[in-house]
Amino acid sequence: MLILMHPQATLRQTGEILTLAETLNLRPYLSRAQGRRVIALTIEDEPLTARLKGMSGVEEVRPLGSGIKLTSRQFRSSNSVVVVGGDHRTRRVSIGSQSMVVIAGPCAVEDRGSLLAAAHAVRDAGADMLRGGAFKPRTSPYQFQGLGVKGLELLAEARQATGLPFVTEVLSVDDLPAVAEYADMLQVGARNMQNFALLRAVGESGRPVLLKRGMMSTVDEMLMSAEYILATGNESVVLCERGIRTFENSTRNTLDIAAVPVVQRRSHLPIIVDPSHAAGQRDLVEPLALAAVAVGAHGLLIEAHPDPDSALTDAAQTVSTALIADMVRHIRTVHRSLSPLEADPHTDCNGFVAPNIGSRSLDFGCNGKDSDR
Ligand code: PEP
Ligand code: MN
Q: Is residue 247 within 8 Å of 290, Cβ to Cβ?
């Protein structure tokens, strides 16, 4: 259920709702919608609804339905912005704001030389973040599986050398402690989108998560997977459309470009597009990337390598780092030409969850401030 506080409700009145939830062993999730504080409880209960309606400061109690709750626009009307990096080692990247975030790098970390060359090239080209898989999901057990922890160490070295935060895939709950120790952002790949144990574990790690759409999953299923992560109290989730399996076989996957505005209608979470895994061919990466910019994606995930033909994984769809500067320039030109000049007043920071009701803060907005945006 969604408890909408009156616009003039006091913090004390809001606190009384949180205390009631605490005594009932329910976890309250805090947000703002339509200029008011809102509190979500992930149950529907008629007697409790009636009780809440009688409490001071409560304007309305609405059912949240059986679908997504914390991921929905009903829970938060403004766009969430997920922050990656920004510590002493890296630049701060905001995904979900007005800027177009470009994440680029090799499919897999292969060796020190090629990773550092890729990292420098993508940074100099104007990319915001580095990508690279250390643990690789491969169709055949005989194919290159990634360098594992050695790959994570190389990614950390590339971060140190360039200042770019990196995203890398975590394949299993077992690998999570190692990956979370190094990575600025955890990628849950298409094949793991409905690995619910992994979703819970990455949520509990507290790290920002890049959740890729399963290749045979609907938008609703992707949003429900995001809900698993948000329900742990971790709201730093970025969705990624990377193409789905259809009867069409002239591309590796069919880029479901409509998923971008469909997600944006239903959810406050940022969504980026991976044109590389959709295309499967490097000459299609730029046109699909530009289409993603035009349709309103918050960012792009692009595979790039200094010598793409020699790449150990996904060579056919990997673009040369020699060409990435031009590609980023085209991406930014299209983005600028379509962006409104004014900053979007509906863009908001995240920070909605009382992670622990015992030490709760009434933080509904940015930077711990109870702002009225
Ligand atoms: C990847 O990003 O390299 C990858 C394996 O992606 P996906 O899970 O979308 O196939
Ligand atoms: Mn790949």
A: no
User: Tens-of-pLDDT digits for all 373 residues of the chain?
Assistant: 999 999 999 999 999 999 999 999 999 999 998 889 999 999 999 999 999 999 999 999 999 988 999 999 999 999 999 999 999 999 999 999 999 999 999 999 999 999 999 999 999 999 999 999 999 999 999 999 999 999 999 999 999 999 999 999 999 999 999 999 999 999 999 999 999 999 999 999 999 999 999 999 999 999 999 999 999 999 999 999 999 999 999 999 999 999 999 999 999 999 999 999 999 999 999 999 999 999 999 999 999 999 999 999 999 999 999 999 999 999 999 999 998 654 443 344 333 333 223 333 344 443 333 333 2
Q: Please, what is the end-to-end C-alpha distance for the chain in angstroms?
A: 23
- Spell out the residues 6+ positions from residue 318 whose beta carbon is closer than 8 angstroms to its own: 106, 107, 276, 282, 303, 304, 305, 308, 311
Q: ∠ at Cα 265 (264, 267), nearest 5°?
A: 60
Q: In angstroms, what is the span from residue 62 Cα to ligand 2's centroid?
A: 43
Measure the CA–CA gap between 302 and 287, rounded to whole angstroms: 12
Residue of the CA atom closest to atom 3 of ligand 1: 107
Which residues does a 6 A CB cutoff place in the pocket of ligand 1? 107, 133, 137, 189-191, 212, 242, 274, 277
Q: Which residues surround ligand 2, an ion (CB under 5 A)?
A: 107, 314
In the chain, the domains with their CATH numbers are 2-78+351-368 (3.30.70.1140), 82-338 (3.20.20.70)
Q: How far is the CA of 59 from the centre of ligand 1 (A)?
A: 45
